[in-house]
Design goal:
Elements (H helix, E strand, L loop, with lengths): L1 H25 L6 H11 L6 H10 L2 H16 L4 E3 L1 E4 L29 H9 L8 E4 L9 H14 L4 E4 L2 H11 L3 H11 L3 E2 L9 H7 L6 H13 L3 E8 L5 H18 L2 E8 L15 H14 L5 E2 L3 H4 L1 H7 L6 E4 L20
Parallel strand pairs: 1-9, 2-3, 3-4, 5-6, 6-7, 7-8
Bound molecules: iron/sulfur cluster.
The site of iron/sulfur cluster has 14 residues, from loops.
């Protein structure tokens, strides 16, 4: 028992530093009334509203945002940071869609620049991890007609037959929308088929920005924001957990970002099915939006912090380290982030083709 008591006291001391930082903010006579009201709400575990979210983006400085976000992060998780041991399988980088920010995909007519893995090749990737302590395989890629629902249910069955305990996090809502439409099944019917085949959870890609106007400009031909949200809601109602993302730092405004967070927060209120929120930074290499400058690391940290403060009903905020680099990922841990994704083991090409490392499938 002494050991336990010691650990408990240690945690209290560490949280008390965060508590003192909040007190300093609250007692700062130069703080504007609206920002003080937000700090008081965060301190009291009250939810901030849409206008307050926009105000944070427009008027709060980095120190203020970091203090509030870290306060929320430590109240939820202390100093714990989460990661998992995983690897990716990207079945193809050919895609029927034409998202302007995507550096990863190639159109079918450019097939010589891309790849299509067979089910056997993907099983060889799974087998190559047989002697490694991985717990999750993350499957995501471009959208192709021949990679249909029957193809993927068969693949999931083979993976589970080979390694039953491996968690399969697979396919974004963009892929599901296409798969289910082609197979002429409802979201619910398709998700039940995939769950029976071995699907455990759903990644958060493809959300981009829900605002219809921005979506029409940057990714006009894939599923809408409403369809993305409907697919995740259907999954949650079946007991399948999922993650959510935002693609930020291109042509969207702060209002669009808060609108996006708000739609996620409302869905989470209804279902509780989201696990992580993952902000994804727009990268400009090798895509049709290369004329748009990338936002700074400071803006990345501000965005993590506002996300942590606004999404009070999300357990985790994740920094996807292959996209932002290890140093920024480390820094983000003081700005609301508590999860740095997986070991990944260099198995993803999604960002390595755009940043030198961009933008995701979906
Ligand atoms: S982002 Fe996804 S859906 Fe869009 S073109 Fe790239 S791979 Fe296809």
């Amino acid at each position: 028992m002494p050991t336990l008591r010691l650990i408990f006291c240690y945690l209290c001391i560490e949280f008390s530093e965060t508590f003192e930082s909040m007190q300093t903010i609250l007692q700062n006579p130069q703080l504007s009334a609206p920002l003080r009201r937000i700090a008081e709400k965060v301190y009291a575990s009250e939810r901030i509203n849409f206008d307050e979210g926009v105000l944070l983006y427009e008027h709060a400085d980095l120190g203020f945002l970091g203090t509030l976000a870290n306060f929320v992060r430590e109240r939820k998780h202390g100093h714990k940071t989460y990661f998992n041991r995983n690897f990716h399988i990207e079945p193809t980088n050919l895609c029927v869609y034409t998202c302007k920010f995507c550096s990863y995909s190639r159109l079918i007519k450019q097939r010589e620049e891309g790849w299509i893995l067979s089910a056997d090749e993907m099983m060889n990737i799974v087998r190559s991890y047989d002697d490694k302590p991985v717990t999750e395989v993350h499957i995501v890629g471009g959208v192709l007609p021949q990679m249909n629902l029957a193809f993927f249910t068969d693949l999931l069955r083979r993976i589970k037959a080979h390694r039953p305990e491996l968690h399969i996090k697979g396919f974004t809502a963009v892929e599901y929308y296409y798969l289910f439409k082609k197979a002429k099944v409802s979201y619910r019917e398709g998700l039940i088929l995939l769950r029976e085949a071995g699907l455990d959870s759903i990644p958060g890609g493809g959300a981009e920005i829900f605002d219809e106007g921005i979506r029409a400009i940057i990714c006009n031909d894939k599923c809408t924001g409403h369809q993305w949200l409907d697919i995740h809601e259907t999954a949650h109602n079946l007991g399948i957990q999922s993650n959510a993302t935002i693609l930020y730092g291109h042509i969207e405004t702060y209002q669009h970002r808060i609108d996006h967070l708000n739609r996620l927060r409302e869905l989470q209120d209804r279902t509780g099915g989201f696990n992580c929120f993952i902000p994804l930074k727009f990268r400009r290499e090798n895509n049709e939006m290369s004329h748009i400058p990338e936002v700074s690391v400071t803006e990345d940290l501000r965005n993590y912090a506002v996300s942590r403060i606004y999404l009070d009903n999300f357990a985790h905020i994740k920094a996807y380290w292959p996209m932002i680099g290890r140093s920024t990922a480390q820094l983000s841990l003081s700005f609301g982030v508590d999860d740095i994704d997986g070991t990944i083991d260099d198995t993803t090409k999604i960002y390595s083709m755009a940043v030198p490392r961009n933008n995701a499938p979906h």
